[in-house]
Amino acid sequence: MDELLALDQDVANVFLDILDPVGQGLRMSDGRLQRAILKISTPAPVGCGLTPSSDHAAVAWWASVQASLTEDRDLFSLRTSLARHAEDAWAFLSSSLALNGPADASRLSHLIATSSRELLDGTVYYPGAEREQRVVRLALRLISRGRAQAFAAATSVDAISPHFTAADYILSKSPTSIGGIYATPLSPRCPEPLTPHNYIHFTRYFLGLPPMHTIGNIDPEAPVADYPAQRCLVHSGAILDAAAYLHFLTHKKTQPCVW
């Protein structure tokens, strides 16, 4: 499982590297970066829907053992040899499903074994026992729902801080289906093709990442965000943040940028 976790991290890093084509580096706080990574793995249209392979692996292994124990008498007779693997798999699966103790686990008893002991003790899963046919699909749906809830909690009004501004909050809570572009193939007949340049700008905005800066226009000391913001070229004395909001330093006010 460690290898799959490393693979998931590499995939997320590649996703972020694509958004930094000139190698400037995504300079921001850890909080903003972790929130973006969470949104990447949150189902579309809320996020990008990049489901970690480690989630698939844990669910697939657990469902496969459940099914095999009800059909394969040889495996059933040797089931105690799976105990060590079952404990590791359950620890990871319960974490992915965001189960906080036996009470949460009991809600899934109709779908999966809710402990390594229940999986292998022979009282529920044995040759000839009935079993749920859609374990993988339903479990992954529950994991996706949990990720959406985790993102909602990470972007609540109580989370507003220097690395999660009011503009970030408004962006995260604005209902939109635009995130569906990460889950639906774009039509080749689209009148306005999504160019790589447009994709990078949109995705950085969608994830709440810093914008692509105008060369020579960065103000590292801009006191409005947790990343190097830029001076607005249209409105004198204003800083432009990642959500296209202007921060007027002299007037102490904020408003959407309008050209």
Give a short overview:
By secondary structure, the protein is of the alpha+beta class. It has helices at residues 2-18, 30-40, 53-69, 73-77, 83-96, 102-106, 116-120, 135-154, 166-173, 196-207; strands spanning 218-219, 229-231, 238-240, 245-248, 253-256. The chain folds into 2 domains: 1-212, no CATH class; 218-256, no CATH class.
Question: Secondary-structure blueprint of this entry?
Answer:
Layout: H1 2-18, H2 30-40, H3 53-69, H4 73-77, H5 83-96, H6 102-106, H7 116-120, H8 135-154, H9 166-173, H10 196-207, E1 218-219, E2 229-231, E3 238-240, E4 245-248, E5 253-256
Antiparallel strand pairs: 1-2, 2-3, 3-4, 4-5
Quaternary structure annotation: single chain
- State the end-to-end CA separation: 50 Å
User: How many helical elements?
Assistant: 10
How many distinct domains? 2
Determine the structural class based on helices, strands and strand pairing.
alpha+beta
Detailed description of the structure:
The structure is a single chain. The protein is α+β, with helices and mostly antiparallel strands and 259 residues long. The chain folds into 2 domains: 1-212, no CATH class; 218-256, no CATH class. It is 44% helix and 6% strand. It is built from 10 helices and 5 strands. It has helices at residues 2-18, 30-40, 53-69, 73-77, 83-96, 102-106, 116-120, 135-154, 166-173, 196-207, and strands at 218-219, 229-231, 238-240, 245-248, 253-256. The chain has a 5-stranded antiparallel beta sheet with strand order 1-2-3-4-5, with no helix packed on it. The chain is elongated and about 75 Å long. The mean pLDDT is 77.
